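Sequence only, no structure available. Ideas?
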Amino acid sequence: MIDLLLVAASKALVGAYPRWIGCRPEPRQRIYFANHASHLDTVALWSALPPTLRRRTRPVAARDYWGRGAVRGLIAGRGLGAVLIDRQREQAGQDPLAPLYAALERGDSLILFPEGTRNPEPELLPFRSGLYHLAARFPHVEPVAVYLDNARRSMPKGSLLPVPLICSVRFGAPLPLQPGEEKASYLQRARGAVQALAPRPTP
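Reply:
I predicted one. Tokens follow.
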């Protein structure tokens, strides 16, 4: 029930209209990686997926935000089925990607924001290394670039309530890791793939 309410709210507020540009909504295990400008990003991307894919796709979210408070916990857990990561685990010498490995081993798909934080600027931040490690460890899982258009304007950082605007979710082509490709090269290529999906401004 909560998941259906989230989808309905997302469609009503921002549309979350999918545009499958480089791939199709097929029942493949994937890592959807996208730009991150708003708290609406997770729900918008997840809502843009067909129900059959949505049921097996889990957003990756920070425990220190989404695990705090009853409402956030309800949305992340029962609504989105999010994989919560503890950003303090790395400081404690533990692998913060362990919950993501477990989800992929179960056959789930993931939604990931490699910038690592919300970015109010059109130019993407450098991608963090998690996407590379997931692509290297699970070569059978398709990494798919995604660009969320207009979410930044609908609910910019610091806003409490969204502004109703049409947001499109643009899905690009799969971007597998090439044999022998180094981390820096892959992350730069992945960042470029997301940036390339941004709509061009009209003259």
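The chain has nine helices and seven strands.
Hope that gets you unstuck.
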